Description:
Elements: H1 2-21, H2 30-38, E1 63-64, E2 72-76, E3 79-83, E4 90-93
Amino acid sequence: MKTLVISAVSVLLSLGGAAVAQTTTVVVPGEVKTYVQKQETPSVTFEGDVAVGTTLPDTVEIHTIPDQPDYGYVVVNKKRVLVNPKTHAVIEVIQ
């Protein structure tokens, strides 16, 4: 019985470690960043830190990027931010 418990714990720990080790990396095309950096867009104020994974409220207007339906952008707290237009989740903080 003791061996069974130790084996089960070992399996769970190894699976948990694998899940923690996995990270999602989004490679944003260079033309998307270039487009966003050239746009003159007013900044909106957001309480709190704006970081990758932060979900912006639905009240924040996400601007579209031509021919790039998977990316949107907004300037938040004077930082240009790439956003998933469907989920409003921050993909990358450009500046």
